[in-house]
Write a structure and sequence with these properties.
Blueprint (H helix, E strand, L loop, with lengths): L8 H14 L6 H4 L3 H9 L4 H7 L9 H13 L4 E5 L5 H12 L4 E6 L2 H13 L6 E5 L2 H4 L8 E6 L6 H8 L3 E10 L5 H7 L6 E6 L3 E6 L2
Parallel strand pairs: 1-2, 1-4, 2-3, 4-5
Antiparallel strand pairs: 5-7, 6-7
Helix pairs in contact: 5-6
Bound molecules: S-adenosylmethionine.
The site of S-adenosylmethionine has 22 residues, from helix 4, helix 6, strand 2 and helix 8.
Length: 221
């Protein structure tokens, strides 16, 4: 048995995913009012992301269940003790990663979110899941909050905030990624500059698209 598949976490995740499905972004009036072009522009923007995500502050926008399971497996499989996450939202991905740390014997997860109401919800969910002791939620723009006081080595990085910032956030963390560290970038197709950074064979990664919307990369030595 694992922390992921037993109470209190398993029923909590069932509820959070069900609530997320009921609040689907597709049915959201803010997003429905945007043309496909404007939506893509905002998703990829390096300047308008704060306003875009403020409009979506009541939506959980979580990773898929499959990606959650992948995060747990990768973190368990590499024996992760130090994890950094860009984009906490309600904490659904954070719960999967913290569960892996618990089952690895402990560790430190630093996650970042700039919407204050989302920080409150994530903290409540991590408390309900019995995992808050493993997690440091840094409130503010991750360009600042992940620029200081990171662990000397990082075992896993999840990129799931503003897509246009993926290369910038990676540059804050990259020198600390240990050989064999994993990077999971959700919705990476909306970050072409990021894909151009991790995909070339000489870039120092093995990298591949995975499932519908994830780029999975492993840092080489
Ligand atoms: C797709 S959601 C994250 C979902 C979360 N990883 C999960 O699976 O439960 C993206 C989140 O990143 C936050 N965000 C976007 N850009 C950010 C930035 N520059 N700094 C901090 N948070 C950011 C948004 O407010 C939003 O809550």
């Amino acid at each position: 048995m694992t922390t992921l598949t037993t109470a209190p976490l398993a029923p909590l995740l069932d509820r959070l995913f069900a609530e997320a499905a009921a609040a689907s972004p597709a049915a959201n009036p803010v997003l429905a009012a945007l043309s496909a072009e404007e939506r893509t522009r905002l998703m990829r923007s390096k300047t308008d992301y704060r306003d875009f995500y403020a409009r979506l502050k009541d939506l959980p926008l979580p990773i898929s269940r499959n990606t959650g399971a992948l995060l747990y497996m990768l973190a368990r499989g590499c024996g992760a003790r130090t994890i950094v996450e860009f984009g906490t939202s309600f904490g659904i991905s954070t719960l999967h990663l913290a569960a892996a740390l618990r089952d690895n014997g402990g560790g430190r997860l630093i996650t970042s979110e700039f919407e204050p109401s989302k920080v409150v919800r994530a903290r409540a969910n991590l408390t309900a899941g019995g995992l808050i002791d493993l997690v440091e939620i840094r409130e503010g723009d991750a360009l600042q909050t992940l620029g200081v006081d990171l662990p000397a080595t990082i075992d896993l990085l999840l990129l799931d905030g503003a897509k246009g910032l993926y290369p910038d956030i990676l540059s804050l963390v990259e020198s600390r990624l240990r050989p064999g560290a994993f990077i999971v970038a959700d919705n990476a197709d909306d970050s072409p500059d990021y894909l151009a950074h991790v995909r070339p064979p000489a870039a120092g990664y093995v990298s591949t698209p995975f499932a519908a919307d994830v780029e999975l990369s492993m840092r080489l030595g």
